[in-house]
User: What shape does this take?
Amino acid sequence: MEILKTNALGRQYQMGTITVDALQGVDLTVQPGEFVAIMGPSGSGKSTLLHLLGGLDVPSEGEILLADTPMAHLNDDQLTILRRREVGFIFQFFNLLPTLTTSENIALPLMLDGKDLREYSQHIDHLLELVDLTDRRDHLPEQLSGGEQQRVAIARAFVNQPRIVLADEPTGNLDSRSGTVVLDLLQHACRELKTTVVMVTHDPHAASYADRVVFLKDGRLVRELPASDGNHDPQLILQVIGELEL
Assistant: This one.
């Protein structure tokens, strides 16, 4: 069973009297435990698609099914609970709370969901170990490097053991070394925790870590590189970008 599926997904925006088609007829299927990268130039609809998949925006047409549940059938409260419990988010700008420590930032989704943190102490310890931040557990965000802050954000995205994690340019604000650490971590977390990851990126190196790479152009899904035995070759991704004039 697919963990995520879109059927003829479309999103239009009004800019004055002009209708802009941000997405048009997107059919996308994601399998459980799969790592999918979405690529395309600025304005191609990548972030719009990610926001729709996470229930942060609603489509103008078509449907999204998360584990066979049509998201359009959920009311606002049900959608909020779905996002909190089934979907993890990783953003380009970390979005950590400055007054919370590393472990508290990781535990934030649990606190918002009214969970007893004492029951999750071993789970949080495991995530701290997974992102190699055990010795930074009591540090505030201002005491961490950018790469360390993004690793906190990754652990936070996985803390509720969601079905799917959505990552929007997770290496966009990092240097190449920190970016590689984050990508290794995302790939490892996907494998170890068996969580589906869908990542938007403009970076061929980042996309090479995914099992499958899909390409958007002018709001349409125009090409994909299917799963391979190992990482995709960034040069092949660059070749496709050139062929599609992205």
In short: Strands lie at 4-15, 18-30, 35-39, 61-66, 69-70, 87-90, 164-168, 196-200, 212-217, 220-225. The two ends are 32 Å apart (CA to CA). The chain has a mean pLDDT of 90.
